[in-house]
Specification:
With 221 residues, the chain is mainly β. It has helices spanning 35-42, 75-81, 139-145, and strands spanning 14-17, 21-24, 52-55, 58-61, 69-72, 101-104, 109-111, 116-120, 123-126, 131-137, 147-149, 154-157, 171-176, 182-184, 189-197. The protein folds into two domains: 1-65, no CATH class; 91-199, Distorted Sandwich (Deoxyuridine 5'-Triphosphate Nucleotidohydrolase, Chain A). The chain has three helices and 15 strands.
C-alpha cells in the first residue's frame, strides 16, 4: 500500500482522503494511522465486501467551525442500509461556478421504463439552521433519459443530520419515465444537491420543536 496515502494524519480533526484512493482490504494496512483508514481495514462490512474499497478525495471536517458540507455515514449505518458494498464518494461540484454538488451512484443498477428505485447514497449533509439541501436529478439524466426525482425535488432539512433513526442518511427516489431502459454505472453522477436559504412566516411558533426521527418523522404525532 502506498504510504503517501496516509501521510499528515496528525492534522486531525481534519482527515485528508486522497482522490479515489484504492485500499486493498486483504493487504497490509498497518500504515493507516487515522481512524478512517483503520475503519476501512477493520470493518469489512461483514460479508458485503468483495474487492477494493473506493474513497473519494475531500476533507472530512470534525472541527466546531463548520458551515455546511457532507459526511459519509458510519460503517454501522452502511451495514443496515446497503445489501452490497457501495462506492463511497462525497458530493462535489463539477466546475468552479456550479451551484449543485453531484451525488454519485453507490452501485450499478438498471431501470426499465416506468421502473423506480430508492437509492441510498451513503451520504449525510450538515448545514446552518436556516438552510436546507435541495436535491434534483442531474440535468443530463433528465434531458436525455427522462429520469425524475419521484417527489420532483427532495428537501433535506438541517435537523435531519444525525437524527436518531438513520444518522441523516440521504436516500434519493428515482423513476425512469422514459421509453428505454437505462443502466447507471457505480460512481456515475446521477443527482445534484444545492444548499439554499429559507424564510419564516410571521407568527411561526415552532421555536424549540425538535425532530424525533428520520424520513417522514416531522408529520408524525
Amino acid at each position: 500500500m502506498d504510504k503517501s496515502l496516509h501521510e499528515n494524519t496528525e492534522r486531525y480533526p481534519q482527515v485528508y482522503v486522497p482522490e479515489y484512493a484504492e485500499v486493498e482490504l486483504e493487504g497490509d494496512c498497518n500504515d493507516a494511522r487515522d481512524s478512517l483508514w483503520n475503519s476501512i481495514r477493520n470493518n469489512v462490512y461483514n460479508q458485503m465486501l468483495v474487492g477494493t474499497a473506493y474513497i473519494d478525495k475531500g476533507y472530512i471536517d470534525k472541527g466546531e467551525d463548520r458551515v455546511r458540507g457532507f459526511e459519509l455515514i458510519s460503517d454501522e449505518q452502511v451495514r443496515e442500509d446497503f445489501d452490497k458494498f457501495p462506492v463511497r464518494k462525497l458530493p462535489r461540484r463539477g466546475t468552479a461556478h456550479s451551484a449543485g454538488y453531484d451525488f454519485f451512484a453507490p452501485y450499478s443498477f438498471k431501470l426499465e421504463p416506468n421502473e423506480e428505485i430508492v437509492l441510498p447514497t451513503g451520504i449525510k449533509a450538515y448545514m446552518q439552521d436556516d438552510e436546507y439541501l435541495k436535491i434534483v436529478i442531474r440535468s443530463s439524466f433528465g434531458f436525455k433519459y427522462n429520469f425524475r426525482i419521484k417527489n420532483q425535488s427532495a428537501v433535506v432539512d438541517a435537523d435531519y443530520f444525525d437524527n436518531e433513526d438513520n444518522e441523516g442518511h440521504i436516500f434519493i427516489a428515482i423513476k425512469n419515465e422514459g421509453d428505454n431502459p437505462k443502466r447507471v454505472k457505480k460512481g456515475e453522477a446521477i443527482a445534484q444537491g444545492i444548499f439554499q436559504k429559507y424564510l419564516l412566516a410571521d407568527g411561526d411558533s415552532l421555536d424549540g420543536e425538535e425532530r424525533k426521527g428520520g424520513i417522514g418523522s416531522t408529520n408524525e404525532e
